[in-house]
Amino acid sequence: MTQATLDEFEKLLEESFSQAPSVADIVEGTVIRKEQDGYLVSIRGAKTEAFLPEKELSSMEEGGLEVGDVREFYVLKEENDEEGMLLSLKRLAFAQAWAQLNDAKVQGDTILAKVVSVVKGGVLVDVADLKGFIPSSQLRTGTPFDGLVDQKIEVKVLEADPKKNKLILSQRQAIAEQRDQVVDNILSTLEEDQIVKGEVVRIADFGAFVDINGIDGLLPISEISWQRIKHPSDVISLGETIEVKIIKIDSELKRISLSLKRMGEDPWTQIEGQFSEGQVITGTVNKVTGFGAFINIFPGVEALLPVSEMSEENVNPFNLYKVGDSVEVLIKKFTPQEHRIALSVKDIEK
Question: Do 84 and 102 belong together in one domain?
Fold first, then answer.
């Protein structure tokens, strides 16, 4: 390289260092003084000191900065003849966070998010100063509830678009991946008739799912209570910790079935010896159908009053009874071992 070429290269290098930073550039600077509402920062290539407003600190600097700290900053506003450069650490953190989230999406990594509020259709979460959304369909519970607020949960990134400021996450995918990794080990520690504690993590019309040591067991609505219930939420709540009995383990399908009602004594065994055929008793109507009415005669025990046993005449059950009615009935057939009791009204008068 000739001396002329070397001199030209040095000149270009010097000009590059002296070129003033532009908006959206990332620059290195040193904190030189704390001001009332921010910090003065020395930036190489700037003619005057730059200013970092207090509001432009990221959550990583909640305790503030120290004089002498050397950091990278995002240029919010270029310097001019009247004002110095305006800086931001918050914007830099945002840019870095979006880049990390995109990497997590590409690589399929699981990240941690803090639930900040419940909104229509899901929950809002905080991830490294960014606001994300988890749709109800991607929540483990399937339904957002206030008990999730302030919880830190593991999620997968479904969509990360900084231009649209759109961050969509999934807790369900993260849980599914974890379940695949631990299910065999957990199942090997469980056995049928075992009593276990678990958290209610999802409620549906057909039952509830209970987290047992990291895997979800199904608690069918028929196994929640001996008494007839309209919906599982009548008895249990999301986030509640309950004791249940394992009634079935399917190692091939990797599923467990649970029972809450079997934690107590079977009411059908309790009524043996308390009732007999031909006895007249008073019960409460629990349900009315086209073929008859179900009468509660003991807590957790329903007996059937067929439409043919309501009257000697043809009647419409819905015109005779409604739920909650108190009715006097005769026990026509009593077989508690089979969980069956047949009732009659028309035979009382005979």
Answer: no
Q: How many domains does the chain have?
A: 4
Q: What is the SS3 string spanning 252-321?
A: CCCEEEEECHHHCCCHHHHCCCCCCCCCEEEEEEEEEECCEEEEEEECCEEEEEEHHHCCCCCCCHHHHC
CB atoms within 10 A of CB 185: 11
Task: Quote the domain boundaries for residue 335.
Answer: 271-349
Q: Residue 147 is part of a domain; what is its CATH number?
A: 2.40.50.140
Rg of the chain on CA atoms, in Å: 34
Q: Which of 229, 263, 297 is where one domain is finished? A: 263
Count of residues in the chain:
350
Cα 299 to Cα 10, 244, 324, 330, distances in angstroms: 94, 20, 14, 18
Residue type, position 215, single letter:
I
- In this prediction, residue 19 has a pLDDT band, given cuts at 50, 70 and 90, of low
**Which residue, of 173, 204, 238, is where some domain finishes?**
173
Is position 179 within any domain?
no
Asked whether the beta carbons of 263 and 245 are under 8 A apart, the reply is: yes
Note whether residue 160 is domain-resident.
yes
Residue 348 pLDDT: 86
- Domain membership of residue 291 (yes or no) is yes
- pTM over 0.85? The answer is no
Report d(CA 66, CA 63) in Å as an integer.
9
Indicate the helix (H) or strand (E) that contains 13: helix 3-18
| Secondary structure of 215-246 in HEC code, one letter for each residue | EEEEEEHHHCCCCCCCCHHHCCCCCCEEEEEE
- pLDDT range class, residue 8, cuts 50, 70, 90: low
